[in-house]
Amino acid sequence: MDSQFQFDWQAAIDSIPFLIKGIPYTLMISFGGLMIGFALGIIFGLLSINKKWFLRWPATAYIEIFRGTPILVQVLFIFYGLPDLIGGPIDPLTAGIAAIALNSGAYISEVVRGGVQSIDKGQSEAGLSLGLSRTQTFWSIIWPQAFRRMIPPLGNQAIVSIKDTSLFSVIGVGELVRQGQVYIASTFTAFEVYFVVAIMYLAITLSLSLILRLVERRGLASV
What we know:
The chain has 223 residues and is mostly helical.
């Protein structure tokens, strides 16, 4: 077979304005979900190390369920399954944000647990010896130190969540991959379009990595 492929740069350039329309959805889903996920991570991460079993067990169950199942299955369950339970449809954007929130929350819970447990117990004893309550000791002494140690894994989770949004094209969310699929359906330039989509994801994640490194350096400098 005499088939020579030539990359169509013009097709790639022409697709950019259409693909850019998906970036706001990608960022909205990822960062909206991550904000909720961070709150869930703090709550369930702290509950998972609580000495009271009736608080620790439900937190552990949540973490294991959402870490142990694929995010694609989770978003499909939320979008297609939950409407049968609640008796009404769920917006694709809402389903995407919920999936990122619940999934990232489980992983962030483990980051929080590991960060808090990495702080030497002597720090708590020092706070109590100064007359601080256990709550004051935790939020004034333990948490600031633990959070600085959490920055790298939290950054990694943010990057993973941004890339996970590419799976949500299956429920019709107009993010980057979905925009690419729509464009390809009318132009038949799959290689060029998905190449541009990959470059856009790379630009987003590299920018975030740079910002996180700057934050991490400032955090270490303040220690």
